[in-house]
Amino acid sequence: MITIGVTAERDGEPRVAVSPETIKKLGNLGCKVRIERGAGLKSRFSDKQFNDQGAEIVGSAADAMAAADILLKVRRPSAAELAGVKKGTLLACILDPTGDRPGLEAIAATGVTAFSMEFMPRITRAQSMDVLSSQANLAGYKAVVNAASLFEQAMPMMMTAAGTVPAAKVFIMGVGVAGLQAIATARRLGAIVSATDVRPATKEQVASLGAKFIAVEDEEFKQAQTTAGYAKPMSAEYQKKQAELVASHIKNQDIVITTALIPGRPAPKLISKAMVESMRPGAVIVDLAAERGGNCELTEPGKTVDANGVRILGTINLAGELPVNASSLYARNLLSFLETMIDKKEKALKINWDDEVIKGTLVTKDGAIVHPSLKKE
After folding, report:
1. Which residues contact 167 (CB under 8 A, 6 or more apart)?
2. How big is the CA angle at 293 (ends 290 and 297), to the nearest 5 degrees?
């Protein structure tokens, strides 16, 4: 029998790493889930729902982790939280391995074998395990909903006997998973939507959703994507031309959603103070990169800033504002990941350390940081 420990999250994190649905499926794989009392309440999962699917409810986080072979979390636990965990316990969570090196080293020193779900390879087989995509999808939707709520004007065009109400203009900066969902949501609300990205392949995606693509489409732009689908670094000359185009466009927008993140680095600055000052009072900016410093020069993580009538939302953890959906999707991501480690016939752990999914996400093992991108020279 494989024992899985699940604890309540700390620091206001409302998500939980399992759902009643996945607890039942983990049981079918030969796993016994021990979950801290109340761990799912913020995601509207009761202890009874967990218990009905076979989970054992325990009184504390320490009890949940004490005998665990696998520990499932949403956020990275502290080394202190792992003090009672046996060496070699598998930990799967959003580890944020580049955000706090001393904290990561402390986790490695506990002897846990830690997997960072953000490092999941971008391959077809791993799509069902991709936590970044599942959570970004929700964040893109929630960004538009929050912006529309704060905007204080109607989103769609309305024809009335008293006159016409113009449609809101929404500009999406960054056309990844969150950006595409933001475009789709804003369009469903009736807004006039435009979007920008430095990757040429996104132009067709933007058009397919009924939005207008904004970019400097020169020869450099046409070559601005790697074979893996990521953006290449752009020249200073191109960046200047693109910034000028964005500046001329943004001043006429009512809502701007920024989604640009670079793994392991601070968020790129896409909106300057001057751009914000050019926008109309009442406009709203939602910065999905606030936790990494923000795409807007005036963003303050965790706060709403009023800059001459333009409100800038630096909300952290937008997906967590939809905890029922976010937890359900995250739990399925973890279930798919664990299925690669468990022999379904023997109902026992059987890890192929050469598996691309395992190698790509493995960060600490045997007391050391082992991921190639994180090793010190």
Report:
1. 155, 156, 157, 190, 191, 192
2. 95
* Structural domain count, the chain: 2
- Whether 376 has a pLDDT exceeding 80, the answer reads no
Mean pLDDT of the chain: 94
The CA-to-CA distance between both ends of the chain, in Å, stands at: 40
Q: In this predicted model, what pLDDT tens digit does every residue of 323-365 receive, in sequence order? A: 999 999 999 999 999 999 999 999 999 999 999 999 999 999 9
Asked about 230 being catalytic, the answer comes back as yes
- Is the pLDDT at 229 greater than 80, yes or no? no
Tens of pLDDT, residue by residue over 301-328, are 999 999 999 999 999 999 999 999 999 9
Region 287-295 average pLDDT: 95
- pLDDT range class, residue 261, cuts 50, 70, 90: confident
**What secondary structure, in 3-state letters, does 179-210 show?**
HHHHHHHHHHCCCEEEEECCCCCHHHHHHHCC
Of the candidates 53, 133, 134, 327, the residue annotated as catalytic is: 133
Q: Are residues 150 and 94 in the same domain?
A: no
Residue 204 has pLDDT above 60, yes or no: yes
Shared-domain flag, residues 65 and 14 = yes
Sign for the CA dihedral angle at 9, 10, 12, 13 comes to negative
Task: Judge whether residue 135 has pLDDT over 90.
Answer: yes
For residue 208, give the CATH number of its domain: 3.40.50.720
Any catalytic annotation for residue 127? yes
- 197: annotated active-site residue: no
Q: 153 and 291, same structural domain? A: yes
Assess contact for 38 and 64: CB atoms under 8 A.
no
Cα dihedral 26, 135, 212, 272, rounded to 10, equals -160
Q: Do 210 and 162 belong to one domain?
A: yes
Per the annotation, the verdict on 141 as an active-site residue is: no
Residue among 122, 125, 265, 280 flagged as catalytic:
122
Which one from 60, 127, 235, 248 is the annotated catalytic residue? 127
Q: Quick one: 310 and 225 in the same domain?
A: yes
Taking Cα atoms as reference points, which of 312, 153, 179, 168 lies closest to residue 252? 168
CA distance 132 to 342: 23
